[in-house]
Write a structure and sequence with these properties.
single chain, alpha/beta, Rossmann fold, five-stranded mixed β-sheet, five-stranded parallel β-sheet, globular, binds NADPH dihydro-nicotinamide-adenine-dinucleotide phosphate, binds (2Z)-2-iminopentanedioic acid
Length: 460
Amino acid sequence: MPTKELKEARKLIVNEIEGFKESHRFEHDVFYQAVEEVLLSIAPLLISDEKYNLHAIVKRLVVPDRIIKFKVEWMDDNQQIQVNTGYRVQFNNTLGPYKGGLRFHPTVNEGILKFLGFEQIFKNALTGLPIGGGKGGSDFDPKGKSDFEVMKFCSSFMRELHKYIGPRMDVPAGDIGVGGREIGYLFGEYKKITSTFDGVLTGKPNFFGGSLMRPQATGYGVVYFTEKMLEIEGKETLEGKICTVSGAGNVALYTIEKLIELGAVPVTCSDSKGTIYDPRGVDIELLKELKFDKRASLEEYGKVHSEAKYIPVSKYPEGGHAVWDIECHSAFPCATQNELTEVDAKNLIKNGCTSVSEGANMPSTPEAIDVFLQSKICFAPAKAANAGGVAVSNFEMAQNAAMARWSFEEVDDKLKKTMQYICTSVAKTAVEYGVEGNYVDGANIAAFKKIADGMIAEGI
Ligand code: NDP
Ligand code: 2IT
């Protein structure tokens, strides 16, 4: 497509987004950030194929099917009644039942869940599996709560949510603040209310039919995707390479574990209070003990390994993050949205980083992504790179529907093939649309086509 025409089309789309933002009074910034990225990527497709405009796909796709918002009342350990807000954003079920995680974090609001739900539609489409997109959660903070309080909250949350979910309707899973413990309590309450043993949630503990490797899936998948991307782009493998990882939760720890298994040397991890830099390679067993068993701060790591450096948030470089200031071959942002800024991106490039793979959802700001794309390093966007979690969630749904159990090895093998398939199809789409090596455009275009063609086929 001629550059002039493309620029004009992009300008039109940006104007449209500005108008949209104006009319919604900027209340959902992260949502618009996610939408804007997709719309800018698909501009060539919208121009070359009139059918998408004819069927008003963009206008229809940016509005969720429904947003369910409810009150959650629960009793804390001091016999005080607490009130939180619960949400489920059922965004789009063109390709299958609504599917996506639940986030429990004090920052949760409608805008964040709309951004996550919107991203999820595209991510799920890229897997090639029959799943639509949704997201939910609450402003409840599980941090510092007793197991009993978490159980009380989860039971109360499910007392309302159960009305809107079902194995062929909407299947939630975990996200920030929601792991096996929370999913176990949510599943238990669902079962009590409905008297059915249905695969209505994924990421369940194994004895309730949870996939044996759902906990590992997102992190392992990010690394499988990166291996394939480096191969396609003719770069060296990860073996022996220094890697930096942010976050210290489910995604970060299993990214680190797989990197170690492949002979790479992950030297960092971080939480909301600070960063660990261990130049000899991080001690994954200690991390698991601290984060999964004790739910402790990373500061504790420094007390066991005196060679490691603990950098509190207050000591981060201005406008940046300590993790991205450290020399590395490959970087893996695995904590949260907009955690990697333009300053960080420039630091990574300056220090010779050759690939960035997003484990978290939308961890790089638009300005940081521009830096990566302009410098021509390998950049794997979240909706492609972290799709391994939801892919294995779909495998868990399949196992539950068949009342079957698959082995760890079987699921791992299917996960690896799925990540390789996503990577190859994203790279191919980029070539097809004249943006070779641009995995952002490749992922957005490949996913949009699947969803939009489905929406056209099903009518309004
Ligand atoms: P966890 O709750 O297990 O871990 C989250 C990690 O990120 C913690 O280390 C946490 O630190 C840190 N973090 C969270 N919020 C903030 C914040 N506002 N500022 C700084 N640090 C923060 O979550 P997951 O590992 O499951 O999720 C991490 C990311 O991966 C999220 O973006 C999620 O949407 C995405 N994701 C998760 C999938 C999954 O299967 N779980 C699948 C695909 C994507 P602290 O403990 O100090 O708060
Ligand atoms: O962002 C994500 O893909 C998830 N939190 C996992 C979703 C799922 O349904 O497994």
